[in-house]
Amino acid sequence: MKIVSVSGNISLQRDIDSGSEEQRKVVLNIIDDVKENRDKALFQYTEKFDHVQLESLLISDEEIKEAYREIDNEIILYIREAADNIRDYHQRQVKQSWMTTDQDGTILGQKITPLDSAGVYVPGGTAAYPSSVLMNVIPAQVAGVQRIAMVSPPQQDGRLPAGVLVAANELGIHEIYKVGGAQAIAALAYGTETITRVDKITGPGNIYVALAKREVFGVVDIDMIAGPSEIVVLADETAKASYVAADLLSQAEHDARASSVLVTPSKLLAEQTALEITNQLEALPRKEIAEASIRDYGAIYVTETLDEAIETVNQLAPEHLEIMTEQPYEIIGKIRHAGSIFLGENSSEPVGDYFAGPNHILPTNGTARFSSPLNVDDFTKKSSIISYSAQSIQMNGSKIAALARLEGLEAHAKSVEQRLGERK
Amino acid sequence: MKIVSVSGNISLQRDIDSGSEEQRKVVLNIIDDVKENRDKALFQYTEKFDHVQLESLLISDEEIKEAYREIDNEIILYIREAADNIRDYHQRQVKQSWMTTDQDGTILGQKITPLDSAGVYVPGGTAAYPSSVLMNVIPAQVAGVQRIAMVSPPQQDGRLPAGVLVAANELGIHEIYKVGGAQAIAALAYGTETITRVDKITGPGNIYVALAKREVFGVVDIDMIAGPSEIVVLADETAKASYVAADLLSQAEHDARASSVLVTPSKLLAEQTALEITNQLEALPRKEIAEASIRDYGAIYVTETLDEAIETVNQLAPEHLEIMTEQPYEIIGKIRHAGSIFLGENSSEPVGDYFAGPNHILPTNGTARFSSPLNVDDFTKKSSIISYSAQSIQMNGSKIAALARLEGLEAHAKSVEQRLGERK
């Protein structure tokens, strides 16, 4: 792994894959087709792209039962415990509606309401993770969303992965459709005979899914466009190189485009970690992927001081940040940008990926500068409440009319003056 | 104004203007040009589109002083009072970071951090409103955003409207640039010699601005893509037709594509309101705009019952909702979708547009189903905090490793087991 001394500006940001014009046209055609031909288009694209002829989009009770036969009972208990932890953490995020009253009779407030419905995209292939089902669905349930629909592309045998079905069923999700790609996003945004449209679509997917989400943004809400995953470890000389290396590799095995970075003022730790990475790589079943990721997107940055290392972390704005220093709590306040912060040597990233409670759907590619882990607020919306009394409009009406006239909006002024006139 | 009896499904939703392919190409070219030629491109596009040759993009102290000479002192006092009200309301939205501790040593939490910087787009022409400056900037300031940059297209005399400059100066905003259109959005997203890039861009604009915001989404965050404005009045037989008509017209004067709708179970109120609209229209300086809006996008829906009227409102999911019924507070709980809710006959929409405190930047075109008024949360982001103790990793490590292996991610399992091995 390459070791680089840094002091100036660096960035993890890879170019956002915004797709080719060709891919965009394909996606626009699929969306138009689904808007027009609805279910029929869904069956056709599923045959074309997933190479399977389905009789029904909706998952049956029998398929759920079959899934349970494939998954170990012990694993099911772990999934339940993880779900409990995730639910507990997210329940602490719930916000209350509030109001404020004034002696002149004015009442102002903010009403918080769950979305009516949400659509969750679960990617297919090797990325079909039961944990992603928990992380997507639970915040929506805690927010109070009444209807949650899940979509996922079928395997060639026409089924969905057993772990995904078990996780969904454990959460009480019954609306599960075997459809993926841009066609699934179009169905969730516009509705078909089988799939009723939703208000918001969350969850990552391939480039066609990302392009489709970007296109339907505004018709429905979407979460962020996900990029490849990344970890930054901030460590000083007290950190164990074997831990640092293992955590960097756990990120690297995800994807050849994943990025694993160590930032440290300790040259010794840098060298030991590089060595450990080479050694630990050998034993990994996904060695090729991890090796390519470390080669192309991995780095060890050595700084002069710990403060410089912290500033480097802020420039990277990583999705996952592990802090393995002598006093990790002294550093939190200086971290301005990070999706999820793991403190101390026992908090390895998989603790948060699966089990601890916080969400693992996180801002990637430097977007932690301005976005957040998926959370309960993402599945609610706010409404302002304004209630003026006769006294408050009498007191303030002429000021409001004057401000309206400054902007040349006479009917605005008159609408207020209607209320004043009668009492003159 | 047309009166329609309704019972089935209705919708305010107009097609989202997603622009032509031609417009999209223009915008992509502008963005590329600004990325490459930076300030030089900004000056060129300003000359081309705004027909003015600037020497400097940054507003000078002299221009601010000049603006103050144009605005009435009384108006400045009203602007200050409005700003105080807006600041007070938004301060009540501020969220605290939190944490939770467990006896096994686990600490979980959520850290809330303001964005480093925000860019505010203030449209030009007749839509250059001082009130929009207050509504855009104050939530960012309350959130704690350190750097706020404002952009707005110059008038042909090379200046910005006095009201806009005064409002900005009252808020202590000094980074004000005379540049608009897609080129301003590109500058805020990618940076130039003069304009440093920001983390988030808010504020409405024309179709080129909307397309540019959509393109840079992901590089920076953006607020919603704004559509034409709308009001729905929900009223029963106790409402005054003259108030209802005046409020519908105050929306209609904004834009020929604005939509003004009355929903009522009272046929009498429907007829009286239609008559009032015809009468009040005559006196309006923006009569042509209001008349076209009422004709093309206005409607009075008459329902059988008040509950049906409420359900119709939910289907419309309006930006502004006025409730003028005998008991408005009994209805709030039934309203699932609305940007801003105005209660009772004294709460006319301009009260919220200018003065009361809640934001006037609201979700349009049915997007109140899933989005919120601009608020303090829009200018902060969250980071999860996960801190496992030696005890908590010992208790849970093997479960986490099992869940990782279920997903085929061996390096994830090993990263946890590194922590268990030593203590065996």
From TrEMBL, chains A, B:
Keywords: Amino-acid biosynthesis, Histidine biosynthesis, Metal-binding, NAD, Oxidoreductase, Zinc. GO terms for cellular component: cytosol. PROSITE patterns: HISOL_DEHYDROGENASE. Binds 1 zinc ion per subunit. CDD domains: Histidinol_dh. Its EC number is 1.1.1.23. Zn(2+) binds at residues 251, 254, 353, 412. Gene3D superfamilies: 1.20.5.1300, Nitrogenase molybdenum iron protein domain. NAD(+) binds at residues 121, 183, 206. The keyword Hydrolase does not apply. One of its GO terms (molecular function) is histidinol dehydrogenase activity. GO terms for biological process: L-histidine biosynthetic process. It catalyses: L-histidinol + 2 NAD(+) + H2O = L-histidine + 2 NADH + 3 H(+). Catalyzes the sequential NAD-dependent oxidations of L-histidinol to L-histidinaldehyde and then to L-histidine. This is Histidinol dehydrogenase. The lineage of its organism: Bacteria, Bacillati, Bacillota, Bacilli, Bacillales.
